[in-house]
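Apologies for my clumsy wording, but are you able to produce some protein sequence, whichever is easiest, and the C-alpha coordinates describing how it folds?
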Amino acid sequence: MSSSHSPEKEARRALSRLRRSLEKSIREVQALEGALRSAEGGDFPSDAYDEALDRVHRLLSFLDEEEQRLREKVLAAGGLEPGRVRRASTLD
Protein backbone atom coordinates (compact mmCIF):
# COMPACT_ATOMS: atom_id res chain seq x y z
CA MET A 1 0.00 0.00 0.00
CA SER A 2 1.51 3.34 -0.96
CA SER A 3 1.88 6.14 1.54
CA SER A 4 -0.60 8.25 -0.45
CA HIS A 5 -3.33 5.77 0.51
CA SER A 6 -2.29 5.02 4.08
CA PRO A 7 -5.01 4.12 6.56
CA GLU A 8 -4.18 7.27 8.53
CA LYS A 9 -4.59 9.47 5.47
CA GLU A 10 -7.88 7.78 4.59
CA ALA A 11 -9.08 8.28 8.18
CA ARG A 12 -8.18 11.99 8.05
CA ARG A 13 -10.02 12.33 4.76
CA ALA A 14 -13.08 10.57 6.15
CA LEU A 15 -13.04 12.80 9.24
CA SER A 16 -12.78 15.90 7.04
CA ARG A 17 -15.61 14.79 4.79
CA LEU A 18 -17.85 14.07 7.75
CA ARG A 19 -16.95 17.42 9.36
CA ARG A 20 -17.86 19.30 6.18
CA SER A 21 -21.10 17.33 5.94
CA LEU A 22 -22.05 18.09 9.54
CA GLU A 23 -21.20 21.78 9.14
CA LYS A 24 -23.42 21.86 6.05
CA SER A 25 -26.14 20.06 8.01
CA ILE A 26 -26.07 22.84 10.61
CA ARG A 27 -26.51 25.47 7.90
CA GLU A 28 -29.36 23.49 6.32
CA VAL A 29 -31.18 22.95 9.62
CA GLN A 30 -30.84 26.67 10.37
CA ALA A 31 -32.20 27.54 6.91
CA LEU A 32 -35.12 25.18 7.37
CA GLU A 33 -35.74 26.57 10.84
CA GLY A 34 -35.84 30.12 9.47
CA ALA A 35 -38.25 29.22 6.69
CA LEU A 36 -40.60 27.21 8.89
CA ARG A 37 -40.47 29.70 11.75
CA SER A 38 -41.69 32.38 9.33
CA ALA A 39 -44.42 30.12 7.98
CA GLU A 40 -45.61 28.66 11.30
CA GLY A 41 -45.11 31.52 13.71
CA GLY A 42 -46.02 30.54 17.26
CA ASP A 43 -46.65 26.90 16.31
CA PHE A 44 -43.01 26.37 15.41
CA PRO A 45 -41.35 23.59 17.50
CA SER A 46 -38.19 25.52 18.40
CA ASP A 47 -37.22 23.01 21.11
CA ALA A 48 -37.06 20.23 18.52
CA TYR A 49 -34.76 22.30 16.32
CA ASP A 50 -32.56 23.23 19.28
CA GLU A 51 -32.24 19.52 20.08
CA ALA A 52 -31.46 18.64 16.46
CA LEU A 53 -28.69 21.23 16.32
CA ASP A 54 -27.37 20.06 19.68
CA ARG A 55 -27.10 16.52 18.30
CA VAL A 56 -25.08 17.72 15.32
CA HIS A 57 -22.80 19.73 17.63
CA ARG A 58 -22.25 16.61 19.75
CA LEU A 59 -21.22 14.74 16.60
CA LEU A 60 -18.74 17.53 15.83
CA SER A 61 -17.32 17.18 19.35
CA PHE A 62 -16.99 13.46 18.75
CA LEU A 63 -15.04 14.21 15.56
CA ASP A 64 -12.73 16.53 17.50
CA GLU A 65 -12.01 13.68 19.92
CA GLU A 66 -11.42 11.21 17.08
CA GLU A 67 -9.07 13.62 15.30
CA GLN A 68 -7.08 14.04 18.50
CA ARG A 69 -7.00 10.28 19.06
CA LEU A 70 -5.78 9.70 15.48
CA ARG A 71 -3.05 12.36 15.87
CA GLU A 72 -1.87 10.73 19.09
CA LYS A 73 -1.81 7.27 17.48
CA VAL A 74 0.17 8.54 14.49
CA LEU A 75 2.65 10.30 16.75
CA ALA A 76 2.99 7.27 19.00
CA ALA A 77 3.55 5.02 15.98
CA GLY A 78 6.33 7.38 14.96
CA GLY A 79 7.90 7.17 18.42
CA LEU A 80 6.89 10.67 19.51
CA GLU A 81 5.08 11.72 22.64
CA PRO A 82 1.90 13.63 21.63
CA GLY A 83 2.19 16.21 24.41
CA ARG A 84 5.78 17.10 23.56
CA VAL A 85 5.37 17.93 19.87
CA ARG A 86 5.06 21.54 18.79
CA ARG A 87 4.94 23.09 15.36
CA ALA A 88 8.15 24.69 14.17
CA SER A 89 6.40 28.04 13.68
CA THR A 90 5.78 28.26 17.44
CA LEU A 91 9.44 27.75 18.28
CA ASP A 92 10.71 31.33 18.09
